[in-house]
Specification:
With about 170 residues, the protein is mainly alpha-helical. The protein has a single domain, classed as Winged helix-like DNA-binding domain superfamily/Winged helix DNA-binding domain (Arc Repressor Mutant, subunit A). The chain has a three-stranded antiparallel beta sheet. Strand 2 and strand 3 form a beta hairpin. Helix 1 crosses helix 5 and helix 2 crosses helix 4. It starts with 10 loop residues before the first helix and ends in a 7-residue tail after the last helix.
Length: about 170
């Protein structure tokens, strides 16, 4: 009896496990590639900060801290390093003098574009080895997974931290 036909087999759990294994392989592959790429080399934590800030330009430092699940001093040090590289900028928050808004600079966006292009090239190599019908199914499945993750409560902190637009 195979795992798929056993009475306790849960296809959703098996898919989650497979997605997790894939994420782990990609982490290893991209970490190896990061060391082969052009400088400056930034840590995985710094790269994660850049991804989040790039996704939500004008992100509040407090929201970033919550998303990362890290202490404010740790997040501040990550941002300090990225700011020193010219990849991230701090701006005053227009509605609170105690808040700081973060944004990715032009140099930061260029660096992210290089990182993403290198990752795309690594993935293209693997995707070309798949038959067309598997690539199509994978694209459809990944789009659905991305949509489901975008609605995850842990990722909605960013939206909750953004003040409503001013009244006309």
């Amino acid at each position: 009896m195979s795992e798929r036909t056993s009475p306790g087999f849960d296809p959703v759990r098996a898919t989650a496990r497979q997605a997790g294994s894939l994420a782990e392989l990609l982490d290893v592959l991209w970490e190896q590639d990061r060391n082969d790429g052009p400088p400056p080399y930034i840590s995985v934590s710094q790269l994660r900060v850049m991804y989040l800030v790039d996704r939500e330009s004008g992100m509040r430092m407090r929201a970033l801290t919550r998303l990362l699940g890290a202490s404010p001093p740790s997040v501040s040090r990550l941002v300090d390093r990225l700011q020193a590289l010219g990849f991230v900028e701090r701006r005053p928050c227009p509605d609170s003098r105690r808040e700081v808004l973060l944004g990715v600079t032009h140099a930061g966006r260029k660096h992210l574009a290089r990182v993403r292009e290198r990752r795309d090239q690594l993935l293209l190599q693997a995707l070309h080895a798949l038959p067309g019908h598997q690539r199509a199914a994978l694209a459809e499945g990944l789009a659905g997974l991305q949509q489901a993750l975008a609605g995850h409560p842990m990722l909605r902190i960013v939206a909750e931290e953004v003040p409503p637009p001013p009244a006309p």
